[in-house]
Amino acid sequence: MRQNPARRAALLDAAIEVLAAEGSRGLTLRAVDAKAQVPVGTCSNYFANRAELLRQIMERTRERLTPDPAEVAEALAAPSSPELVAQFLRDVYRRMDADRSSYLAMMELRLEGVRRPELGAELNRSFRVALEENIRFHLDAGLPGDRVDVTLLYLAVHGMIVDDLTVPDVLAGSAGELIDELCRRLLPRGAAENA
Amino acid sequence: MRQNPARRAALLDAAIEVLAAEGSRGLTLRAVDAKAQVPVGTCSNYFANRAELLRQIMERTRERLTPDPAEVAEALAAPSSPELVAQFLRDVYRRMDADRSSYLAMMELRLEGVRRPELGAELNRSFRVALEENIRFHLDAGLPGDRVDVTLLYLAVHGMIVDDLTVPDVLAGSAGELIDELCRRLLPRGAAENA
Question: Which of these, A49, B9, B56, B175, is most buried using a 10 Å CB contact count?
Answer without folding.
Answer: B175
